[in-house]
Amino acid sequence: MTKIIATLAVPAFLLTLAPPAAAQPHDLCPMGNVLITVERLQGGVSGETGERTSIGEGGCFTVDRVMNGQTVSRLRSGQLSPDQVASARTAIEAADITSLPDRSGTPSPVNPVTLSISYRGATKTVVAPTGTSIDSMASRESGSLARLAARLLELTGS
């Protein structure tokens, strides 16, 4: 009997020495097809850093920290209500993204702010001087891209 206990105890002891398995991110809401993506980036010494908010066709959303185009970490995820999805779609239609120029604004020579929206295979970008807020971009006459971004970020709590 002692041999059996000793035989079982050794593997159990060895399991306690093994490092725990890395936690895997688990989204309660699978993204599916991405409807629209908003990126807010700030240039700096190490490149561009900021956040990427993606909203799926069904209303799932993710907010990721990005650095130089690569996802660094997931900040949060969630699910928009059907009314919020409808509101997002209305804002997208009202912005008439396809009519907007691919790139607008005057980039600052140092650490520009970049706001990009990707929708249906097209990416539209506004570049502004360091520290320019989305609200400031939206208040400009040609700020429909920034107004759309502000609405989408408001819906996702960003």
Describe the largest sheet: 7 strands, mixed
- As for the number of domains, it is 1
Structural class: alpha+beta
Distance between the termini: 61 Å
Total strands: the figure is 7
Spatial ordering of strands, largest sheet: 4-3-2-1-6-7-5
Task: Please indicate the percent range of residues in DSSP E strands (runs of 2 or more).
Answer: 25-35%
Q: Strand-and-helix sequence, N→C?
A: HEEEEHEEEHH
- Please state the overall shape, judged from the principal axes of the Cα atoms: globular
Q: Percent range for helical residues?
A: 25-40%
What brief labels describe this structure?
158 residues; alpha+beta; Mago nashi protein; seven-stranded mixed sheet; 4 helices; globular; disordered N terminus
What would you say this structure looks like, in words?
The protein has one domain (29-155): 2-Layer Sandwich (Mago nashi protein). Residues 1-26 have low confidence and may be disordered. It is α+β, with helices and mostly antiparallel strands and 158 residues long. Helix 2 packs antiparallel against helix 4. It has helices spanning 2-17, 82-95, 134-139, 144-155, and strands at 34-44, 47-56, 60-67, 70-79, 103-104, 113-119, 122-128. 30% of the residues lie in helices and 35% in strands. The chain is built from 4 helices and 7 strands. The protein has a 7-stranded mixed beta sheet with strand order 4-3-2-1-6-7-5, with helices on one face. The radius of gyration is 22 Å and the shape is globular.
